[in-house]
Amino acid sequence: MILTYCYRILPNAAQIALMSNTLELLRRHWNYAFGQRLDALHRSRCQIDRCSIVSEPIGEIPQRVNYYTQQADLKQTKILFPDYKNIWAESQQINLQRLNQAWERWLIPDASGKRGGRPRFKKPGELRSFVYPRVNCPKAGANLKDGILKLSKIGEMPVILHRPLPEGFVLKTCTIVCKADGWYCCIAMQDNSVPQLLPLDEVKSAIGVDVGLKEFLTTSDGDTVAIPQIYRQTQHHLARQQRQLARQQKGSRRQAKKKNHIARIHQRIERQRKDFHHKTAHKLVKNFDLIAVEDLNIKGLAKTRLSKSILDAAWGAFINILEAVAVKRGVRVVKVNPHSTSQDCSGCGHKVPKSLSVRLHHCPKCGLLMDRDENAAVNILNRAISEVGLILPARGGFGVAPPVKREAFLEFDCSQLSGSRLEAPVIPQG
């Protein structure tokens, strides 16, 4: 298991100047290395006897450019530009590794055939972090001990350890990040012991979760969590600050101060949303052994007229946090296909078409009447149960006995579950 703890550091003015200069030099090196790769690609992407004199540059064909050739050029870079001697060598290598990863994501498709966007040249201030790949080991660039962080080429500075480092974890990397409200160090640590997922035979409680915009989420038990709309509550104040920024003189100190003020507003919105997601996720993981959610296409949903509300709710970030919290506790999170979860009846399976403005589900076939989000949550739970192979009581806990595997259902004594509401069993064929 790999965890990352983020702590605030308190460098002095001289150390802040050194770290800011390090970020600027790494930014310039990123742009040079990226330009070198683009030039080599443009000059060698087609056959030499078929180049277009209109769109292809003519000149000497460059040698192959990759991470290893650019890493080997670091020695020459330090000779031509002595300022790079003040940067830890491994930090420069990590900077090139980041560029190489972005480059490969652009040119090489993944397993699904999709590629990432083209890397970009970084403007001043866009590169905001650098990495020390080794911590608390021989020849390490970063050492953390007793609340003091010692960085090579920079010096020692106090760290606000708002929570202790977990015992048994080995510190792997230290990332220095410049944020709107100061400097932080992100310590990545690893432990070989990974919590095992709870066996299916020991699952005692399950819940289906349907996310939405009227309520942040609705469970299959009928419980709801109100949506905070953090950005909506702040957007008018943020708009006023941005209008004031537009009136500032470009390059002035007042403009820089106003930019930082706006960045702090965005940072506060992000932290409030993240805190809400963590608290909601911990509450679900604490009370249930299996959590069923929808596998939503957030990018597609964000292109609709409800994009601002969808991005404000940040369903994708919440599901990622929920999965991370669940892994640490051994709880299962099952993603299901979201197709027709709001249209299908959870009682009989009959499809009941309804628009988004209709908030009640009323099945004309079985007469079921309930909130449409709760109906969708029950459908999500039923699909997850079907995927993992469990037979569970419908929307009422597990009664006296825990759920059993689908294969063992025929040998299970149903009299143990007397008094509980059971769904119709799905008997395997053959």
Specify the oligomeric state.
single chain
Please work out how many helical segments DSSP would assign. Answer: 10
**Whole-number radius of gyration?**
28 Å
Strand content: 15-25%
Name the helicity range.
25-40%
Structural class: alpha+beta
Uncertain stretches: 394-430
Shape estimate: globular
Question: In total, how many beta strands?
Answer: 16
Determine the N-to-C terminus distance.
Answer: 41 Å
Largest sheet data = 7 strands, antiparallel
- Element order, helices and strands? EHHHHEEEEEEEEEHHEHHHEEEHEE
Kindly describe this structure.
The chain is α+β, with helices and mostly antiparallel strands and 430 residues long. It folds into 2 domains: 2-190, no CATH class; 200-388, Nucleotidyltransferase, domain 5, CATH 3.30.420. Helix content is 37%, strand content 18%. The protein has helices at 13-44, 67-72, 74-80, 89-107, 230-246, 253-287, 298-301, 307-313, 315-329, 372-388; strands at 2-9, 129-132, 142-145, 148-151, 155-160, 170-179, 182-190, 206-211, 217-219, 224-225, 290-294, 332-336, 360-362, 369-371, 390-391, 404-405. Strands 2-6-7-1-5-4-3 form a 7-stranded antiparallel beta sheet. A hairpin with a 2-residue loop joins β3 and β4 (148-151). α1 runs parallel beside α4, α5 (230-246) packs antiparallel against α6 and α6 (253-287) packs across α9 (315-329). Pfam families: Cas12f1-like_TNB, HTH_OrfB_IS605, OrfB_IS605. Residues 198-303 form the Probable transposase IS891/IS1136/IS1341 domain.
